[in-house]
Write a structure and sequence with these properties.
Organism: Evansella caseinilytica
Structural class: mainly alpha
Protein name: Site-specific recombinase XerD
Number of helices: 14
Keywords: DNA integration, DNA recombination, DNA-binding
Shape: globular
CATH superfamily of the largest domain: Intergrase catalytic core
Order of helices and strands: HHHHHHHHHEEEHEEHHHH
Domain Tyr recombinase: 111-311
GO molecular function: DNA binding
CATH topology of the largest domain: hpI Integrase, Chain A
Distance between the termini: 59 Å
CATH class of the largest domain: Mainly Alpha
Mean pLDDT: 89
Low-confidence stretches: none
Number of domains: 2
CATH architecture of the largest domain: Orthogonal Bundle
Length: 311
């Protein structure tokens, strides 16, 4: 069986399952990672591997755990992708093996993994306002993207906005006069945010930093967060930031601020949730506000919020 052809069919299979483009990209990347390991292992041992590559799973799992290059979270992500792959090629034995490995690979999370303390948030925004750690080329155009990056962090940290909500936000859904923003998340769920005056001003300032030749009309149904082209030194006309690009920007700014690299977009959002819980907001209220289907994702955070209150 030709692997590359099968990968293309796998992508179509995921698309028909209505997986997000970023999820499809991640699944195929992790399956390719396994295929690359099989090739390297075969060359090193001189032992050829045979389709559908089930017998090699124990060795691969040992490699992931023993290499020191992969965190438990990353290992679980890879195992989940492989489980979906083996479901697709109809190999139930492999699926059972991978489910066992997933149970074995426990994620040991602590409050420090998902919560930015007030001093760390201040450190982050001070860094966003500075040019520290930037290349000369990045410094040259920093004034054009500084506001955009800051608004992204503010919306996640202070309003609990998801990356998908950010990348699907269109200009005609931002009502500067009433300070309201209409968001659309996964499964088409919508919600309306009312922003503080200072934050809506920052959003307008962000919009106005887009050079006039490529600046869209305020009432156009085009992405609000535009991708930046460093080669041309301007924004890409009507080309929105992708989820991958937002995640990459967040990682870069977190590193530049000197904060731990495990502070991802998810950690920023959980920081918002923890702040709300410590202020006394109920899980049920947050479930409705953030468009969760149940309160289950908030259970662990509620326990941590009680710990924060006692500090």
């Amino acid at each position: 069986m030709h692997f590359e052809n099968e990968i293309q069919k796998f992508k179509l299979y995921l698309l028909l399952e209505k997986k997000q483009p970023s999820t499809i990209k991640r699944y195929t990347y992790d399956v390719q990672l396994y295929k690359d390991w099989l090739k390297n292992d075969s060359e090193a041992t001189g032992v050829p591997h045979c389709w559908p590559y089930i017998n090699e799973l124990p060795s691969y799992y040992s490699y992931l755990r023993g290499s020191g290059s992969y965190s438990p979270n990353t290992i679980r992500r890879i195992l989940s992708a492989l489980r979906k792959w083996f479901q697709y090629i109809q190999q139930p034995d492999a699926v059972c093996i991978l489910e066992h490995y997933l149970k074995e690979t426990k994620v040991c999370r602590t409050l420090d993994d998902v919560y930015l303390a007030p001093n760390q948030i201040k450190q982050l925004f001070n860094s966003l306002a500075s040019n520290r750690g930037l290349t000369e080329k990045q410094k040259k155009y920093r004034h054009l993207i500084r506001d955009r990056n800051e608004v992204i962090f503010r919306l996640i940290l202070f309003y609990g906005v998801t990356i998908q909500e950010l990348t699907t936000l269109h200009l005609n859904r931002i009502h500067f006069a009433s300070k309201e923003v209409e968001l659309t998340g996964r499964k088409g769920k919508s919600r309306i945010l009312t922003l503080h005056a200072n934050d809506i001003k920052k959003m307008y300032a962000c919009y106005m930093t887009i050079p006039e030749p490529v600046r869209p009309n305020r009432y156009d149904a085009v992405p609000y967060f535009l991708a930046f082209n460093y080669q041309l030194g301007t924004y890409r006309e009507n080309k929105g930031l992708s989820e991958v690009a937002v995640q990459k920007m967040i990682r870069h700014e977190i590193k530049r601020a000197g904060l731990p690299k495990h502070f991802t977009a998810q950690a920023l959002r959980k920081t918002y949730i923890l702040h709300q819980l410590t202020k006394g907001k109920k899980k049920e209220t947050l479930r409705d506000e953030l468009a969760f289907e149940t309160t289950q994702p908030l259970d662990e955070l509620e326990k941590w919020a009680k710990g924060l209150k006692s500090l």
